[in-house]
Structures are given as C-alpha cells and as structure tokens.
Write a structure and sequence with these properties.
Low-confidence stretches: 17-35, 45-54, 107-126
Number of helices: 9
Mean pLDDT: 82
Oligomer: single chain
Structural class: alpha+beta
Distance between the termini: 128 Å
Length: about 375
C-alpha cells in the first residue's frame, strides 16, 4: 500500500495515518485537487512573499559586500597612514642623528685636548707650521729701548720638525731701573731653554716652568733691589699645527684669522680688578675708568711671588693662513684693532713694516717703545 500525496496550501505532503488509501498496483496519476479560492489566495500570497523576499536578500547581500569593502578601504587607508608616519619618524630620527653627529664632530674639534699624551707621542691635528716671520721694533720717544724679543730658527727643517717655533716678546717696566736688561734676560732665558730641549713632552708645563725659572733668575739678579725692576712676558710656541702660549703682565697675544682679531690672553693690570669691582657695584664705572693706577701691573717677571700667569692648558688648533701677533703695549696702545686688521692682508714681513709706519704716523708726543712679532702659518 502506498501513501497518497496530497497538495495543500501550495505544498505536497503525505496524509496522516488513518487517512491512507489503497492504491492500485498500477498507480494512476493523482487527481488534481481542485483549488479553492482560499487555496489560490494563500498560494498567491506565499508566492508574492517569496518574490518580495528576494530583493531584500539581495540588498542584504549587497549591504554586507559594501560594508566589507568599506572596512577594507579603511584598513588600507590606515595601513598607508601608519606606513607614512613610520617613514616620517625614521627620516626625522635619521636627520636628527646626522645633525647630532655633525654637532658632536664640531664639538670634538673645538674641545681642548692635550697636544702631547704622556707617552710623548705627538698628536697631529692640523698640518700647518710657521712659514714666515715678521718683526718690528722702535724706541719711540723714549731715551732707552726696554723691549726685547726672540725667535727660534724656524727656517731650519730639523728644528722646526722636532721642536716647532718659539717667539717671545718682553717689555721692560718703564720708569724702573734696568728695564731693558731685565727684558733681555727673560727672552734669552726662554730661547736658551728651547734650544737646549730636544724633544718637548708637555709644552704647556714646560712654558710654565720656564716662566718660573726666568722669574727666579731675575730675582737673583735684582738681589736686594727686588721690586725696583721687572718685565712683562708673552711667549708663543707653535708645534704640530697647535699654538701654546703663556703671558705675564700686559703685553698681548692675538690671533688673526679670516679678517678678525682675537686677543687670547688677559692683561694683569689693576684696571681689570677695578672693572670687576664696578661690575659688582662696589664702585662706579666712572671711578674705575678714571683711577690713576688703572694701568699699573699686578703681575710681572721680577715679582716675588709671581702673582698671575695666563696660559693655554692645551694646544690651540691653527689653520693655514693664521697669523699670531705678539706685541708690547707700545703697539696696541697706539693702534686700534681696525688699524691692525687693515695691514693683516699682507705677508708677515710686509705687515710688520706697515704696522711700524702706522705707529710712527700717529706722532704721539710720549710714544712708548714698541715691539711686535708676527708668525704666519702655512
């Protein structure tokens, strides 16, 4: 016995138990169930609902696809933005690192460092040396020449290579006895020690020792007349492209470079102390400027004890074309910095002659002795 399939509400189904009908061995086509108006209405309604549901499903699918595309777009945009930020940060850090390295290199070049390590090996910085020397000296309007100067044999390749070049200027104290003799003793003392020394190990320390020894020699010479005579001292030692200097008193050491003049040492005069007191408010600026003892020396060779020494602790790096100017107050007390710079374009010997002419052209009634030494580097 088979089960009769009936059509109801648009679906085919098996009848429930108890409603089964016997079918013939040769099954005949099922009779069409006569559609009632209610059945047709329901069928049409279900069909309409099915048809209407199709666009909603497609719209839902399209919405899901559009949402996925939007998320992919945002994800891609976010990735590109993060990539751009990362590239910017890396470029910024690289540029900052390069600038830091450049500043570090500049600071390292400017940082003072010993020209000679303890093992005595020379540290080569800038391959320049003294190539030309100029000097000038004049008695001025005084009765006695109390200035002295000395220059080592820079033209000798062996001396220049082993020791470098030493220049010394000493100004005997005017108004005191034997000023010229004392200044000559000072320059001869330093030049003699330079010539005796074979291989200098620590130039700053040696210059300091030489100044102290020169002071002791002057004190022994003066004996009981200590304080009655003395001399200033400026010394410049160029070795392996570096400048070492020492000064006592008010003579000057200047560096001429690229149209500028730089005074390297400090003057040991009472005026410096007056200026400091004026800066602290202890005296007025006018009082500091008008003090009659303003130019009195507070340190000089021949004083006991030696009060002040100004010196370089490390070698100052030199460049090709640099000029080192050592001069007594008879020069810078007459010429301005601009007048000195006006002659700096010439080679050292010609510059010395030009400065001599400029000092004399001022025709000062009480022109002091004046002396200068110019070292030109190449």
């Amino acid at each position: 016995m088979g089960r009769e399939i009936e059509h109801s509400y648009g679906f085919w189904k098996f009848p429930s138990s108890g409603e089964e009908t016997e079918m013939e061995e040769t099954e005949a086509p099922a009779e069409e169930v006569e559609s009632t108006p209610e059945t047709k209405a329901i069928s049409e309604t279900e069909t309409t609902l099915e048809m209407e549901s199709i666009p909603e499903t497609e719209a839902a699918g399209a919405g899901e696809s559009g949402s996925a595309s939007a998320w992919l777009w945002f994800a891609g945009a976010g990735f590109l933005m993060l990539l751009g930020i990362l590239i910017f940060v890396l470029c910024f850090r690289r540029q900052k690192k390069q600038k830091g390295e450049e500043r570090g290199e500049a600071a390292e070049n400017l940082r003072p460092r010993p020209a000679y390590p303890q093992n005595g090996a020379a540290v080569m910085s800038v391959p320049v040396s003294v190539a030309l020397v100029g000097n000038l000296q004049h008695i001025g309007e005084r009765e006695e020449q109390q200035d002295s100067f000395a220059i080592s044999d820079f033209a000798d390749p062996a001396v220049s290579r082993q020791k470098g070049c030493l220049a010394v200027v000493a100004d005997g104290m005017g108004g005191m006895k034997n000023g010229g003799r004392i200044s000559a003793m000072v320059t001869a003392s330093l030049l003699g020690k330079f010539e005796e020394r074979q291989f200098p190990d620590d130039i700053p320390l040696e210059l300091l020792q030489w100044a102290q020894e020169a002071n002791e020699e002057v004190l022994q010479h003066l004996g009981s007349h200590v304080g009655e005579s003395g001399s200033t001292l400026v010394a410049a030692w160029v070795k392996d492209g570096r400048l070492h200097y020492l000064s006592v008193g008010d003579s000057r050491i200047c560096l001429l470079r690229s149209g500028t003049l730089t005074v390297l040492n400090r003057e040991h005069v009472y005026g410096s102390e007056l200026d400091e007191r004026a800066a602290r408010g202890e005296i007025s600026l006018e009082e500091a400027r008008s003090d009659p003892q303003r130019h009195a020396l507070t340190s000089y060779i021949g004083s006991n004890p030696l009060q002040k020494i100004d010196r370089s602790l490390y070698g100052f790096p030199l460049l090709a074309g640099d000029k080192i100017l050592l001069m007594s107050d008879g020069v810078f007390g007459t010429l301005s910095d601009m007048e000195i710079l006006a002659e700096a374009e010439y080679e050292a010997p010609a510059m010395a002659e030009a400065l001599l002419g400029r000092v004399l052209s001022h025709r000062k009634p009480e022109q002091d002795n004046f002396t200068a030494v110019i070292l030109q580097c190449r």
